[in-house]
UniProtKB/TrEMBL annotation:
Keywords: ATP-binding, Nucleotide-binding. This is ATP-grasp domain-containing protein. PROSITE patterns: ATP_GRASP. InterPro entries: ATP-grasp, DcsG_Biosynth_Enzyme. The keyword ATP-binding applies. Residues 92-287 form the ATP-grasp domain. GO terms for molecular function: ATP binding; metal ion binding. It comes from the Bacteria. PANTHER family: GLUTATHIONE SYNTHETASE (PTHR39217:SF1), PTHR39217. The keyword ATP-binding applies. The lineage of its organism: Bacteria, Bacillati, Actinomycetota, Actinomycetes, Pseudonocardiales.
Length: 287
C-alpha cells in the first residue's frame, strides 16, 4: 500500500538543509512517496497521509499565522497542540515547576524588568528559532538593557538565563527520540557569535555523534515524560523529540531546550539505523 508524506520547509529552505537525505530511501522502503513543500506555499497538505514539520524555521516572525496553518492540516506531526505549546520557550518554566532539571529561566514580558543574574547570562526571545535574537552578556548593564529593549520594542517576550560555561568546552548534547523511544544523540557547538547561515534562519553549528552518559539520558527522559504529562499525551504520540542538555556548574545535566516542533535531528551524525527508526515511527503515527 502506497502512502504519501510531505516534509514541511519554508520559503528560504523549501527542501530543508539536507539532513533528511538518508530518510528518503528509508521511507520509500516502507511504501511512502515523499515530497517537500514550504508551509505557506499553498500546497495540498490535506491530500497527504502524514505531514511532517522539518524546516519551518521562519515561523517566529509569523507565529500566529503558522499556528493557524498547523491547526488546519490533518495528519500533522507533531500535532498543532504540541506546536503551540513548544514554540514559546515559556514552557521551560513549566518544566522547572514540574521538577525537571532545567537551566533556570526568567520570563520577561514587554514592559517588565528582569532580575539580572550575578554571573554571565543570555537574553533571547521566548519565540525564536536557530539562535536568532539570542545574545550573551558578562554582566548587567547598558548593552543588556539595549538588547532587551529591542526585543520588547518588537512586542516580544524575552527569556533571561544564566550562561552555562560548560557550553564553551563541552557544547550541548542533543538526545533524539522517535515515537517516544530513544534513537541517538549528538553534540552541538553553536557559539552565539557564530555566523548565521545563508538562509538567515539559523546559526552554523558543529555537530558530532555522541553517546549520552546515563545521567544525561535520565534527565532527557524526565523532560520528555514531564512534557507529555503537561500536554496530556503519550510519548508514542510524538513522532520526534530532541532534548538539548548542558552541564551546570556542578556537573549536573540541565535541560536547555526541548524541541518538539521542527528540530534538526542529526541524521548525518547518527548510525545507519536512525533513518530506519524514523521511517518506522512515521508509519506508526498512521496506526
Amino acid at each position: 500500500m502506497t502512502r504519501s508524506a510531505i516534509f514541511v520547509g519554508c520559503a528560504a529552505l523549501p527542501e530543508g538543509d539536507g539532513d533528511e537525505a538518508a530518510v528518503l530511501p528509508a521511507l520509500a522502503d516502507l511504501g511512502f512517496t515523499l515530497s517537500w513543500a514550504a508551509w505557506d506555499s499553498g500546497a495540498d497538505f490535506a491530500s497527504a497521509d502524514v505531514v511532517v514539520l522539518r524546516a519551518a524555521w521562519d515561523y517566529p516572525e509569523r507565529r500566529e499565522e503558522f499556528l493557524r496553518w498547523c491547526e488546519d492540516v490533518p495528519g500533522l506531526s507533531n500535532s498543532a497542540a504540541v506546536v503551540r505549546w513548544n514554540t514559546d520557550k515559556a514552557y521551560l518554566g513549566e518544566l522547572l515547576d514540574a521538577g525537571v532539571p532545567t537551566v533556570p529561566v526568567e520570563i520577561v514580558p514587554p514592559g517588565e524588568k528582569p532580575r539580572w543574574p550575578k554571573k554571565p547570562f543570555v537574553v533571547k526571545p521566548s519565540v525564536g528559532a536557530g539562535g536568532r535574537g539570542a545574545a550573551r552578556f558578562e554582566a548587567a548593564g547598558a548593552e543588556a538593557e539595549k538588547h532587551l529593549r529591542a526585543l520588547h520594542d518588537e512586542g516580544r517576550t524575552a527569556l533571561v538565563q544564566p550562561y552555562q560555561s560548560s557550553v564553551d568546552t563541552q557544547g550541548e548534547i542533543a538526545v533524539v527520540y522517535f515515537g517516544g523511544v530513544y534513537s541517538h544523540a549528538f553534540t552541538k557547538f553553536a557559539p552565539l557569535e557564530s555566523e548565521v547561515d545563508a538562509s538567515g534562519l539559523y546559526r552554523e553549528e558543529r555537530l558530532a555523534a555522541a553517546v549520552p552518559a546515563p545521567e544525561v539520558r535520565a534527565a532527557a527522559e524526565d523532560a520528555l515524560d514531564a512534557a507529555c504529562g503537561l500536554l496530556g499525551i503519550l510519548r508514542a504520540e510524538l513522532l520526534y523529540a530532541r532534548v538539548d542538555l548542558v552541564r551546570g556548574d556542578d556537573g549536573r545535566p540541565l535541560v536547555l531546550e526541548l524541541e518538539l516542533t521542527e528540530p534538526s535531528l542529526g541524521f548525518r551524525h547518527a548510525d545507519a539505523g536512525a533513518p530506519l527508526r524514523f521511517a518506522s515511527a512515521v508509519r506508526q503515527q498512521l496506526a
